[in-house]
Design goal:
- The complex is a heterodimer of chains A (142) and B (150).
- Chain A is built from no helices and ten strands.
- In chain A, 0% of the residues lie in helices and 54% in strands.
- Chain A has 142 residues and is mainly β.
- In chain A, strands 1, 2, 3, 4, 5, 6, 7, 9 and 10 form a nine-stranded antiparallel sheet that branches.
- Chain B is mostly beta strands and 150 residues long.
- Chain B is globular and about 50 Å long.
- Classes of the chains: A mainly beta (142), B mainly beta (150).
Chain lengths: 142, 150
Amino acid sequence: MSFGFNFPALFRAHNTTLQTGIGSGGPFNLQFSEGCEIIGGSRVNIQNNAYLYGDIKIDGSTGKNQSYDIAFDPTKLISTMISEAWQIASEINLTIMVGDDAVYNVAQDNVALTVRQISGSNPGNSSADQTRVFGLRVEVTP
Amino acid sequence: MDVLRPYNSLNYPKMDFEQPTTFTTDITATSNSITLYSGSSYYIEAYVQADNGVGNPRGTCYYQLYDATSSSYIGNEAGEDLTSSTGAALRQGRKCAAALILDSDISTSMTIELRIKTLTGSGWNFNVYSWLSVAPYPGFPSLRVWQLPS
């Protein structure tokens, strides 16, 4: 296989508005973008194959026990292995070494950064005051 | 770029990998290693999620990418120290082990593992799927491989 870039290669989208109470499967809204358009307020139109990175910043004051994870919701997966990030704010679990709190994927068409699941004891506390998506459009030739 | 999931450590200190059904790079994979081939350069990032368990002596866990072809660790290590009374005394931002492997580093092929390098304390559990009772939504860790033009 050979690899190249599709232009504009780099794109990003973000939001700095506090979003609260996002349910399982619900998307984080995005407001600003460069190198891409935002569809329906939350989906990044990547058009081509793209490597994706996403993360959020949690405002710990909006809920004591924010326990939920996040993932990308792509319209078309290129990689079948989806990474998920564990977000936990004020309630730090002292026994678990949390890894890289970001999500990664390779997808096509358009994607949203979503709340994948919320801990059952903490519904409604899923919030974020910053949301970021970064991507690199790639071209793969078999 | 491909994403694998380092989800357990049945062959400690090697991490076990789940694999995508199709690869978008030229790498091949086994249950606990990936193989890179000459003709391209590669950038690899990986992280481990580990549970020290409730009531066990707190410890440290550090991990790093390992070149099994030349039997040496490569890139930077990452991990965490959970030993202080408040936990995670030496927290770091991205607990991400990374390595850039140039085409010139690969003679024909290079086998890479993700290894637990340092582990103190006891009761560590790397099986993310078994954590449902202590951490319902830990997410899934990943190992990412970028194949780059040489």
